[in-house]
Each structure stands twice: as structure tokens, then as C-alpha cells.
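Thread: zinc ion complex, take 2
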Amino acid sequence: MLIETLVVGFLENNCYILADEDSRSAVIIDPGDNEEDILKTVNEKKFKVEKILLTHGHPDHVGAAEAASSETGAPVYIHDEDKKLFKIKAQKPVAENDSITFGKYTIKVLHTPGHTPGSVCFLADGKLFSGDTVFAGSVGRTDLPGGSYRDIMKSIKEKILPLSDDVEILPGHGPSSSIKEEKRENPFLVDAMEGNYHLY
Ligand SMILES: [Zn+2]
Ligand SMILES: [Zn+2]
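Output below.
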């Protein structure tokens, strides 16, 4: 699987473009801003964008979704719970355990509420595109509308910790990591493992 990473917008969101190296079928995850740069990459690499996937509805992740959708004709996928954060045409729902395909690859959807009610992570080819649910060393803030500390800890416990240690984490902001590293270094994952989150 080919992965192009673009850091876009003033909040420096990681926009990921995943592509099948043979068929050039592609998906864009979180086109937050800088649609020209995203489309330039798509054209240079001769990617055929089939789907636009949003980890959640915050503006720094969805800002260029409509432009990218109208340029490529690809529909935009977002969890129903985050639709109210973001009004766009061509919406398709994603839900827990959905399989989304492009080329020979399949992306599995994990519903991970907490940062927002409709936050999801996308698991593809041993890589977790974690949006603002998990970062290297931290988790997404839960003090914004719809956020819940208990929910994000539950999501980490039930959806993130069971993943294999060698799964790479490609978050919505900042550097990449792995489940193994975060189980060791990330205080929120450590709390979730130890069952300490009810203390907060
Ligand atoms: Zn966010
Ligand atoms: Zn963000």
C-alpha cells in the first residue's frame, strides 16, 4: 500500500492518501485544507480517488473535503454521530466494523467515540489511521462539544489496546508511532491497561 502524507492547514493536520500500487485506486483520509496540494499529489502520482474518509467532523480534518469530492467525484464518508458537526453533500455513513475497499486493500472501521461522538479509526494493511483519538504520547482532547473522557478511555481499552503490538499508528497530528510503543510510553494507554481511568 502506498501512503502519501501531507501536513495541511494551520493546525497541521496529517492528510493521508492511500493507494493501491498496481491499480492506483486511492482514498484520501482527512483532507483538512490545502486542496490544491492534495489534488496535485493525486495527479502527479496518477491516483484514482474513489473515496474520501473522515476520522471525525472537526474543521481541521474536513476543510477541503467538499472541494476534493467535487474535483474527484469521490463520495465523503463520515460517522453519523459527527454529521451535525459538518454539513456536506455526497455523505456516506461509516460505522463500527464496516469494510471499505479500494483496489486490493480493505479498510476496517473502528468506532472510537471520545474526542467526538462520531470519531473513527481506520485500520488498513497493519496501519491505524487514528485521527484525533490517539497521538504519539497522548490522546485527543475531550473538552470540546460532544467530547467525553470516559468514552475515549473506553474506546482505547476496547478498540485500541486489543490491536496487535506491531500495528503502526498514523495519527491526525504529529509523528507516527506503534501500538507497542504507545502501550509503553502513552500515559492514557497505560491507564486504560491498568483500569485507572475511572479516577478522572
Ligand atoms: Zn479533532
Ligand atoms: Zn485535529
